[in-house]
Amino acid sequence: MDIVIIEDEILAAERLQTLIKKYDTSLNIITCLESIEEAVQWLQTKPHPDLLFVDIHLSDGHSFEIFKKVNLQKPVIFTTAFDNYALDAFRLFSIDYILKPVTAEALAAAINKYKTLSSGVLSNNYALLNDQVRENFNTRYKNRFLAKVGQRSFFLQAQEVAYFFADNKIVYLVDREGNRFIINFTLEKLEPLLDPHDFFRINRKMIVHSNAIEQVKPYFNNRLKLTLKSIKADEEIIISRERVSDFKVWAGA
Question: Going from the N-terminus, what domains does the chain have, and what CATH number goes with each?
Answer without folding.
Answer: 2-138 (3.40.50.2300), 144-251 (2.40.50.1020)
